Each structure stands twice: as structure tokens, then as C-alpha cells.
Amino acid sequence: MAFLNAQDEQAVRERFAEMGGPVKLVVFSQSLGGAADLCRENEQLVREVADLSDQLSVEVLNLAIDRERAEAYGVDQVPAIVVEGARDYGLRFYGVPSGYEFGNLIDAIIVASTGEPDLSDDTKASLSALAGDVDIKVFSTPG
Amino acid sequence: MRLAQHMSVASDRVRSIAIEATEFPELSRAYRVSAVPKIVINDRVQFEGALPEPQFLAAVLQAVEESA
């Protein structure tokens, strides 16, 4: 069964008109274990989204096999998605981004494609002067 | 989540992870997630619900200061 209906696809296509460059969606999965079903769902959702823009590509990696890549991306959970634009901006999703998270996935794709965050000049100036690394986890639920 | 994502793109020092709480019960327990959205910065500064951009930035700066 498809995740996206025709109406969803049309809405996402309209958002993707804002894209400013290519984006790669790097998916981490595992074929064994308790998360295997969710990993399959996640891959399917990502492929459905990627089909909606010529500027999107998908790479599927296995957390257990592609360990160096996982470590380089700092990914230690599955299912996971890395949203990579002109470079890796540090955009990660753990879990299938359906429901509420779906809008955030689309937003992450667009901002990764442009490399132009929608933030005030004051915020951008503060962030460019950060003295240390920042890891922001945002927990949400579907729906 | 939107602000966290845009901050990630604004600075190479920032990364954001959107976590589906129901699919990661162990992580959710470890971070004592009882209401969503719950934001945890550098495992030190945390809050629930959306914050306006200046307050979100203040939380980020506080987390960096406490991590130093």
C-alpha cells in the first residue's frame, strides 16, 4: 500500500518547486531484528517522496554492514534518514517520518537543497559564532 | 523541529535529530519523554513544546555554555 495519495503527492510536488539543488536521502535500514518492518516502511516512504522530484536521489545502507558510513553520519538507530544537500548539514530522522514528521522531512529537504535557512540575521550571526558542537534531539509522535 | 533543522543548515556545528518517540521507547524513556514535542539539546537543556526563535536560540547557547 502506498503512503502518499494523489493529493499528498500534488502538495509535495508544489513544495518541491522551492528546491534549489540536488538532495540525497541516505536511508539506514536493517533487514533483521525487530525494526525490519519499520525499515521497509521507511524505505518505501522515502522512495515515494524521491519519485516526486528529479533533484532527489536515494541511497539505502545497512546499519550492520555499512558501519563506517553509519559512524561517519553519527547514525546508531534504524530506521534512519540523513538529508544531505550540497554537504551534510546534520539533518537526521529516526523512525518513519509519517504524520507530523512528514512535513518536517519535506521542510528539511527544501532547506538542504537551498542551503538557506529561514532564520533572523541575529540568530544566524549567533550560530556562526558557536564555540561548541550542538546536538538537538526533537521527540515527537505520529499524528 | 523546523527551527532545529534550519539551525543545522545555518551552522556546521549544529545537528538535529527528529525522533519518532513511539518507535524508540528506550530512547524516549532515557530522555524521560512524557509530552511532545520534547527538545533535548546536548543532553543538558530540555523543554517541551514549541519556542519562539529567540528563546530557542537562547536554549542552544545555554547548552553550549554548559557543555564547555
Report the biggest beta sheet of chain B as strand number plus sense, adding barrel if it closes. 2 strands, antiparallel
Annotated CATH homologous superfamily of chain A: Glutaredoxin
Helix content of chain B: 40-55%
| Assembly category | heterodimer
Strand content of chain A: 15-25%
Enumerate the strands of the largest sheet of chain B in spatial order, edge to edge or round the barrel: 2-3
Overall number of domains of chain B: 1
Query: Of all protein chain pairs, which has the greatest interface, and how many residues does each chain bring to it?
Result: A-B, 47 and 45 residues
Q: What is the alpha-carbon Rg of chain B in Å?
A: 12 Å
Q: Just name the CATH architecture of chain B.
A: 3-Layer(aba) Sandwich
Tell me the number of strands of chain B.
3
The gyration radius over C-alpha positions of chain A equals 15 Å
Mean pLDDT of chain A: 96
Query: What is the rounded distance between the termini of chain A?
Result: 19 Å
General description of the model:
The complex is a heterodimer of chains A (143) and B (68). Chain A is of the alpha+beta class. Helices cover 39% and strands 21% of the residues of chain A. Chain A has one domain (6-128): Glutaredoxin (3-Layer(aba) Sandwich). Chain A has 5 helices and 5 strands. Chain A has a 4-stranded mixed beta sheet, sandwiched between helices. In chain A, α2 (36-50) links the parallel β1 (23-29) and β2 (56-62). The longest helix of chain A has 15 residues, at 36-50. A two-stranded antiparallel sheet of chain B has the order 2-3. Chain B is α+β, with helices and mostly antiparallel strands. Chain B has one domain (2-67): Glutaredoxin (3-Layer(aba) Sandwich), CATH 3.40.30.10. The chains are: A alpha+beta (143), B alpha+beta (68). At the A-B interface, β4, α4, α5 and β5 of A face α1, β1, β2 and α3 of B. β4 (91-94) of chain A pairs parallel with β1 (14-20) of chain B.
